[in-house]
Specification:
Rna Polymerase Sigma Factor, Chain: A; mainly alpha; 2 domains; 190 residues
Length: 190
Amino acid sequence: MSHQRRTPKELRRLSDTELICLARRHREAFGELYRRYRARVEAFVLRLTNGDKELARDITQETFLRAFRVFHRYRPKTDFLYWLFAIARNLAVSRFRRVRRTVPLEEALAHTHALHTAAPPTLEVERAWFLQRLAAAIRLLRPRERAVVREHYLYGKPLARIAQEWGVSENAVKLLLSRTRRKVRHLLNL
């Protein structure tokens, strides 16, 4: 790849892989990565912040600043978007912890009931992060594996009914589901 500067139009034509390689040497390439991924990262952070648009914008900006500063640590074997999600998640968790430590005592006492009935923000962040990872793992499954997960867990169908609809034995469906669960656990590093 050439070491000369690229025009914005040329950068837009590059694949993500080419941009990532180029971004190690040229800020303009990282700017194009920002343009491509900002909206997805902000949507992810918006869910983590329960719809707080201002906070989501702040954390998104902070995510890309942090990513730029530590870009030398990025390893291409990790999906770039999920690397950004990990940075965003960590920043959101840190922000929630800071906010939680600085709440005045009067305000904390006034919201005691709400605090006991709602999940702590860090748990919500963790849950959202896990669901993002789970969705990504499921997208990596073969069509038949995705189908058995969808039919059994999403639609709540018993294994016998799935077997009947698919024209296979119930044991075949049990085996497929067992192997699929193992595969998902492996993909999630659990």
